[in-house]
Amino acid sequence: MSVVHDKLPDDFFFGAALSGPQTEGMWQRMGKLENLWDTWSNLDLGAFHNRVGSYAGNDMGTRFAEDWQTFASLGFTSARTSIQWSRLLDADGKLNPEGAEFYHRLFAAAREAGVEPFVNLYHFDMPAYLFRRGGWESREVVEAYAHYAATAFAEFGQEIEHWFTFNEPIVEPEQRYEHGNWYPFLHDYQRARSVQYGISLAHSLAVNAFREAQAAGVVRPDARIGLINCFTPPYTRENPSDADLEAVRMTDGICNRWWLDLVTCGTLPTDVIETLTERGIELPTRPWDEQILAQGKVDWLGFNYYHPARVQAPASDVDEYGQPVFAQEYTWPDAVMNESRGWEIYPQGIYDFAMTMARDYPDLEWFVSENGIGIEEDRAERDEQGRICDATYRVPFVRDHLRWIARAIDEGAKCRGYHYWGAIDCWSWNNAYKNRYGFVEVDLAHDYVRRPKESAAWIAEVARTHRIS
Ligand code: BG6
């Protein structure tokens, strides 16, 4: 960057991103039902780093008053967490009063600390009994989700201003159904896209339920609803072939444009659907689906950014499981890697994608809803005061991303804020506590005690001054 963009607008907000299943713990208390993470943990605890299964969270369920204060001390004015479907409703789809009471207390404590709670309704945490009925491939489950969303709006509608239907709806289709990484470990491209379609309908039904609840005065008039996805700006190699560009089109189409079109136009990208059909992949459509999807337009969007997508034409049209392949990974020779996570660090990607949105979806308001760096055991180096020395890598990571965000805003992007992922270390899917993201340490050996890391003072200063030092 020739000009350094180091100032963010005065009304730009800073905050934290977290999720219910990764923080709450209390997995069998207050009437909480089993979700798919509990199912997998019960089946095979060895699949989780150091055998730390879904039960752990980071003990926020009991320490939330302290944690909201900690976020406030970092200069954060908002934080997004999620309600767990498996805690709010019982197996008959009725409100679980203990679960509801827990979330009322959680949100009230956030407010008391001066932190605005943003509420997401689903973070990869399908209740096990609904998975057994078909999960996102089943219309019954899609409708059950709409009912769950409507129940949440009725219960918290006067408290919560910022709602989100899903976090990263692209991830379950890919991880559970396409790449076989997460329970139930499938390699089935057709089912992955059916799941993606089911989630798209569920999102749209929930947005409709929100609009109805707002019109009826159940949801407060200033409330807004959005969707959060991990968008990956796609790149290919220099001097690409037509086939490389085709790989970019489909990667972008499935991961990015699918959701952007849904939330801005209430449609799915026709070029993507046509290519899928040509390859024998059919979405399980029904006659009234277009009207349902048309209701999927949101008030704003969350953009989770960790890494770009670098793709090229695939060597073969099908993989070892006989499944269609539209792109394969391209290793960019200049890539800087976070080796702990295996993700490329490419701060400019946030700017590139911001400018794509400004060009193709100019009315869409958004915020960076997750960004962060997870390093294995935070390299375990400490200073004399016992603080983890993370400033040499965590500060430049965040600083560089913020500078590209500032530049995008200076050039017209409608980005309103930044939420850092896992600001207090938390449990992370099958990596559990391997990679630490926090500005604040969670000490597992000492009953989840929290301790600020070296980077905490830096982010607090940036969040207060809006100067990216
Ligand atoms: C996002 C998710 O994909 O990335 C979070 O919304 C997740 O739930 C975060 O924890 C970091 O990824 P990971 O796999 O390192 O925890």
Compact description:
The protein contains 15 helices and 17 strands. It is of the alpha/beta class and 469 residues long. It has one domain: TIM Barrel (Alpha-Beta Barrel), CATH 3.20.20.
Write out key terms for the chains shown.
globular, eight-stranded parallel β-barrel, three-stranded mixed sheet, TIM Barrel, binds 6-O-phosphono-beta-D-glucopyranose
Molecular structure report:
It is built from 15 helices and 17 strands. It is of the alpha/beta class and 469 residues long. The protein has a single domain (13-465), classed as Glycosidases (TIM Barrel). The chain has an 8-stranded parallel beta barrel, surrounded by 4 helices. The protein has a 3-stranded mixed sheet with strand order 6-8-9, with helices on one face. A hairpin with a 4-residue loop joins strand 10 and strand 11. The chain is globular and about 60 Å long. The model has no long low-confidence stretch (mean pLDDT 97). The site of 6-O-phosphono-beta-D-glucopyranose (BG6) has 14 residues, from loops.
Largest sheet: 8 strands, parallel, barrel
Q: Uncertain runs with pLDDT below 50, 5 residues or more?
A: none
The percentage of residues in β strands lies in: 5-15%
Rounded average pLDDT: 97
CATH architecture: Alpha-Beta Barrel
Please name the CATH topology. TIM Barrel
Task: State the share of residues found in helices, binned by percent.
Answer: 25-40%
Number of strands: 17
SS field, number of helical segments: 15
Structural class: alpha/beta
Q: Which strands sit side by side, in order, in the main sheet?
A: 1-2-3-4-5-7-12-14
CATH superfamily: Glycosidases
Instruction: Provide the domain count.
Output: 1
Integer-rounded radius of gyration:
21 Å
Calculate the terminal CA-CA distance, rounded to whole Å: 15 Å
Q: Give the class-level CATH name.
A: Alpha Beta
- Which cofactor or ligand species appear? 6-O-phosphono-beta-D-glucopyranose
Shape: globular
